[in-house]
Amino acid sequence: MTFAPIPRTELGFWPTPIEPMARLGAQLGLKHLWVKRDDQTGLACGGNKVRKLELLMGRALAEGCDAVITAGAAQSNHCRQTAAAAARLGLACHLLLGGDEPARATGNLLLDRLLGATVHWSGPQRKGERLEGLAEELRAAGLRPMVIPYGGSNATGAAAFALAMEELDRQQRAAGVRFEAVVVASSSGGTQAGMVVGARALGMDCQIIGVAVDKEDLRGPVPMDARLASLANEAGALLGVEVELAPHELRVDGQRAEPGYGVITDAEREAVAMTARAEGLLLDPVYSGRAMAHLISLAREGALDPEAPILFWHTGGAPALFHYGDGLILDHAQRGE
Length: 337
Ligand SMILES: *Cc1c(COP(=O)(O)O)cnc(C)c1O
Hints:
The protein is an alpha/beta fold.
């Protein structure tokens, strides 16, 4: 099985490593818990969006664009990685960020500023509702912008994660393991959708457990599994694979999303602290920490086979740690030390 070629521009370090998390696994009663290090994709603190951006920017360059526009929350990792990719390629970058300008630029927003992106504040809208309007303004000003949707999740962005499954398949063969499940944070959905269509196309018998992190993603006009199935099928079409996925084939666990996007609870604090202290590995509180909190609760409920090889796909996001600061410390007595 080979995927049809898609224009691509190199931005990251590949393959990202896979490694066992023996100490964390032992604490959770899982004999073969591993991690895929997409927090180490190489560009400006890394993260999963670098994979998508290699294809999205490949298209922007092929189409002769001189600017990109995208959108997200003020602490968006996607926006920070897009700003870095644009800087690297000499394109202008405009970001539509939710909320109002804060008094201080911290975490990812600080990095957006250092990377030279132009930031537009969009109040309550943080999912790109004004992208087309901004594109019109930039065209009127003589630029040739490409609009990258919220999270980089169109067919092109999602296709990158089908290719990532090819990378994983090579790695698991070399390591002599076969992952039965992948646990990954899911929001705009391109990551999970691409993984599911890639796994199917490659004949990998591996369940992708998407952990919803944003309850608004679950309450849209189209159910999240149906939205992801369409995205997976569009990515499959782009890659020339004959796969047709139905919504029930995309597993999205929604329980963790309830507190709201970016709202940190003790479950995320515990997941971040446990992983840091057992493995020396930094998660972020909004995405990977929430996904790990879900993995921890599945393990404690006995919902994961203790003997099965399980892969936690680390999607990055650690710059947000420095935005949330000591509010992340589980043991409140340690604050302010
Ligand atoms: C964007 C992001 C995700 C979610 O990926 P989607 O493709 O939007 O579902 C997960 N983790 C981190 C750290 C992210 O920045």
